[in-house]
Each structure stands twice: as C-alpha cells, then as structure tokens.
Amino acid sequence: MNKTDWTIVKPWRGTAVEQEFNSLERIFQINGKQITKDDLSDVILYETNNIRFYIKRYIIAGKGLRKYIGRSRVRAEWENLFFFQNSGIAAANVVAYGEERRLGMFKRGALITQEQTNTTDLAQLVRQKSPMFNDSQWLNSVLDQVATIATILHDKCFIHTDLKWRNILITMGKEPQVLLIDCPTGSHWPKNLLFKKMVERGIIKDLACLDKTAKYVLRRSQRMYFYNQYTNTTKLSSKHKKQIRRILYFFEGRE
Q1: CA angle 145–166–34, rounded 5-degree value
Q2: Phi first, then psi: what are they for 133, rounded to 5°?
Q3: Per-residue pLDDT tens digits for 161-203
Q4: For residue 114, what are the contacts with CB-CB under 8 A and spacing of at least 6?
Q5: Distance from the first to the final alpha carbon of the chain
Q6: Comparing C-alpha atoms, which of 8, 6, 49, 12 is closest to residue 25?
Q7: Residue-wise pLDDT tens digits, 87-141
Q8: Phi and psi dihedrals of 67, rounded to 5?
Q9: pTM, full prediction
C-alpha cells in the first residue's frame, strides 16, 4: 500500500504555481533543463509563470543503510532548509516537498526550490577568477557571514558534513548576501558526552571543507580572520591552536 505526502509551502498555495506542482506524480512527469543526474536523483530547472524553479527528484532514499532506515535524503534536504531559515540563516526558498512510501519503505520523493536570481556559488567565482576576491570589503562581508552561519550551526550541534564552497550561494553586488543550498546529509547531534567526540570531529570536518578551497584562494591572514570571526576571539588559545592543526590536516592524503 502506497502513502504519499505532498506539501505546497504556504506563500504558494492558491496560486498558479500550486496548480502546476499539484502532486508528486505530476512532478515526476515534468520535463525541464537537466542540471545533474545520478543513481539517486536528478535536478532539473523548470520555468512556469515567468518564475524558475529547481526540481530535485529522488528515486532512492539514500546510500548505505539510509536506503532502508532513517530519514530519506530528500526529507533531510527540506527539513535542513527549514531549519536554516528558522535559525536565521538565509537559504534556498522551499516551494514544495514530499515523498511516497510503499509499505513504509521509500519509493520516491521530490523537493522544489525557487531559483535565486542574480546569484552564484563561491566555487564558481573561484573558477571565474573573480576580481571580487581582491575587494577587501566584499570579502570580509562574505567571511563574516559564513563564519556566523558556521557558528550558529555548530552551537546547535548541527553538522553540515558538506560545507564546501559549491554549496554556498552569494548574491552578486557590492553588498553580498550568503545563502545555503544543498544539505542532504547534515544532521543534529545530541548535546551529551556520549556524542561529544563525534560532534567535535564533525565540526572539524565542516571547517576543513571550507578551508579546502580557501587555502588556494585566500591569504593566510584572511583565513585567520575567518577563524577569529568564527571563534569570536582575537587571541588564540592552546585549544584553538589544536583545533586549527586538526583542520589543516583533516584531508591530508585524501585530496
């Protein structure tokens, strides 16, 4: 027996967009510009009513044990985006989401987000060798915002696990706004001693993911500026220095 849950987010209810995206079955019939595709999911760009949307469709719940237990990747994606927004973090605007299960097992699911106009991701700016990285005011604004985002997440024991430059969206212009997009593997961890080491390692991984690209793009002083903003300190303690060493060596031998 199949059970389907499909939700249109409140601002879009009663609109032509709701009619266009009125069911999960309809979403899997839509054709659009192919953006990505793999064994788990595909992403298309679709335009309706002069608005463009990203539609991500999953046919497998996830990798490994997630195929059979726990929340699906698509559910994690929409729940994490809502968590970001509820935490004061700018993120992709969710339009609709849902999944279908058969006898309790994941069958398929989808997430629709509105295209963020006049934006690009940080990794794309690096590939383009953007002159914006030479603008100290612009760069400090971006670093401040990313540091604040990381602090908020980690203070709540939320580990992103894929906090890479490609998943950080930037609005174009002299006053950039930072937004988070894809986060299908991020999750909360309990605040207790049993999981303390795992949370600490997750935090190191998040910061190492950010620094993986930063070390090739930013000066050492700029990377330290980010870390000082993240830790809200101007003087490094022995604990900070130990954490920095773990960040620097996290991906050693794996790049």
Answers
A1: 135
A2: -70, -15
A3: 999 999 999 999 889 999 999 999 999 998 888 889 999 999 9
A4: 51, 52, 53, 54, 92, 93, 95
A5: 46
A6: 6
A7: 999 999 999 999 999 988 999 999 999 999 999 999 999 999 999 999 999 999 9
A8: -60, -30
A9: 0.93
Write out the E strands in the chain.
2-8, 33-37, 41-48, 51-58, 94-102, 105-114, 119-121, 158-159, 168-171, 178-180, 187-188
Minimum mean pLDDT among 51-60, 61-70, 104-113: which range?
A: 61-70
Q: Which tokens belong to 28?
A: 């899997």
Helix or strand or coil: residue 77?
helix
Buried residues in 145-173 as b, exposed as e (16+ CB within 10 A): bbbbbbeebbeebbbbeebbbebbbbeee
Under the banding of pLDDT at 50, 70 and 90, the label for residue 10 is: very high
Residues 77 and 66: beta-carbon distance below 8 Å = no
Are the CB atoms for 57 and 112 separated by under 8 Å? no
Burial of 209 (0-12, 13-18, 19+ CB in 10 A): buried
Contact 52, 45 (CB under 8 A): yes
> What average pLDDT is seen over the chain?
95
Cβ–Cβ under 8 Å, residues 210 and 182: no
Tell me the sheet residues that pair with 41. Answer: 58
- Structural domains of the chain sorted by starting position, each given as residue range(s) with its CATH number in brackets: 2-114 (3.30.200), 119-249 (1.10.510.10)
